[in-house]
Amino acid sequence: MTASAPDQQPSGQNIPDPQTPELTVQVCVIGAGPVGATLACRLAAAGIDTAILDHAPLPPMEHPDFDGRAYAIAAGSMKLLLDAGVWPLLPHRPCPIDSILITDGRPGQPPSPLSLEFGPQDSTEPFGWMVEARALRVALNRALHNSPHIRLFAPATADITRSDDHTLIITSTGQRIRAALVVAADGRQSRTRSKAGIPVTRLPYGQSGIVCAIAHEHPHDNSALEHFLPGGPFAQLPMSGTDEHPNLSAIVWSEKDAVAKRLFSLPDDTFTREIHRRMGDRLGRITPVGRRWTYPLSAQYAQSYTAPRLALIGDAAHGIHPIAGQGLNLGFRDVISLSTLLISAAEKGQDPGNSTLLTQYQRDCRPRNMMMFAATDALDRLFSNDNPVLRLARDIGIAGVGRMPRLRRAFVRHAMGV
Ligand SMILES: Cc1cc2nc3c(=O)[nH]c(=O)nc-3n(C[C@H](O)[C@H](O)[C@H](O)COP(=O)(O)OP(=O)(O)OC[C@H]3O[C@@H](n4cnc5c(N)ncnc54)[C@H](O)[C@@H]3O)c2cc1C
């Protein structure tokens, strides 16, 4: 584990345009990724004036091509997206996850007979929804452009000066923004976090994630598979079909870096065979669709989620192993906590950047996120190896959870983010 010192980056390079009147808002969000954009939309839906900026352009009506990436959105996150007015704007139908099969094995061999399956007997609601990344982006961009309570600056970067009673942001487009609170939602490499001098502890895994989509012969029946293999977990997640590919799933799969690099550059037919060796025959014949993506996997956590008049959310505050598909869902839970506190402060006429509110935000989120950090790290260590003792222990564990109703319910609640 390494703790990084604050970055030494130049500041104060943006020059305010004297012709542009200063903008006053309650909250200014830096970074319009899924977490920052959802926070802005949630606050705006409650009538809170919010500015948001991103260094990437965010065109309102762009319909990017299918690219194979999708998020598993837990039930609690879906409710947030509804409250933020984003869910109804999704251009493609999300696919419900109605059952989850958890197995353990080795590539090319049938899974261990001790498996764990969650289904309708565990919940009357879906466990979550698969939402294409491009669909979420289109919906968020639409919402950001259409809300009267949001001022969007993109592409733009920010110079931030925080003082006791307000913050001043100067954008690279020359806009001066006065806000009571700045929220850093600028991702894992958060410049806002490092400029505030908040150190980060990083934990590299030596693993990479391979992400792609597959078309398959048999319907998935809204069922997800999490198959633990010695190189890392392999997940098949059901997606809504298209006219061209009625049976479609997302694949998220981790391997040691060198293996992932080799697999990633295989020709389609051999790559398909490698997927088949891991997933078996459950979906019949498979064909990769769209492009492949690879991400180096690491975990990290910020030593603090707050500084005077600053809150960190999403990947700017924490990054976890994607083994449980919970990274974005954790960020959405930060949004639920912070927006609830901010909406309550606005209703009471309180300062949204007050230190009591920030302390409460950190208290609500950091312990919970640290637990998820520790749990995903432990899961990866327990499952991503071929040690026979650990194999036996995890098979017994998988079977044991299935037979203990309270533990089963705890698992279900966790997966649903409720
Ligand atoms: C292989 C893989 C699979 C995953 N699968 C899932 C899953 O199924 N479910 C799930 O819940 N999570 C998943 N995750 C995690 C999820 O992708 C992240 O947690 C999520 O993207 C974090 O969102 P964010 O908005 O906090 O940060 P980001 O998505 O990183 O967004 C940050 C935003 O800030 C902007 N920005 C950056 N720097 C600046 C700057 N200096 N100034 C202005 N703007 C800036 C960027 O342009 C970007 O728009 C997965 C991750 C990986 C690696």
Task: Describe the secondary-structure layout.
Elements: E1 2-4, E2 23-30, H1 34-45, E3 50-53, E4 70-74, H2 75-83, E5 95-97, E6 99-104, E7 116-118, E8 128-132, H3 133-146, E9 150-153, E10 158-162, E11 167-171, E12 176-184, H4 191-195, E13 200-216, E14 223-229, E15 232-239, E16 248-256, H5 257-264, H6 268-279, E17 286-302, E18 306-307, E19 310-312, E20 318-319, H7 327-347, H8 355-383, H9 388-403, H10 405-416
Parallel strand pairs: 2-3, 2-12, 3-9, 6-14, 12-19
Antiparallel strand pairs: 1-13, 4-8, 5-8, 6-7, 10-11, 11-12, 13-16, 13-17, 14-15, 15-16, 17-20, 18-19
Bound molecules: flavin-adenine dinucleotide.
Description:
With 418 residues, the chain is of the alpha+beta class. A hairpin with a 2-residue loop joins strand 18 (306-307) and strand 19. The strands form 3 sheets. Strands 1, 6, 7, 13, 14, 15, 16, 17 and 20 form a 9-stranded mixed beta sheet that branches. Strands 2, 3, 9, 10, 11, 12, 18 and 19 form an 8-stranded mixed beta sheet that branches. It has 2 domains: 2-65 and 135-202 and 300-377, FAD/NAD(P)-binding domain (3-Layer(bba) Sandwich), CATH 3.50.50.60; 70-130 and 205-295 and 386-416, D-Amino Acid Oxidase, Chain A, domain 2 (2-Layer Sandwich). It is globular. It is built from 10 helices and 20 strands. Helix content is 33%, strand content 30%. Mean pLDDT is 87; it is low at 1-10. Bound molecules: flavin-adenine dinucleotide. Flavin-adenine dinucleotide is lined by residues 30-36, 53-56, 71-72, 157, 185-187, 191, 209, 211, 252, 295, 314-315, 322, 325-329, 331.
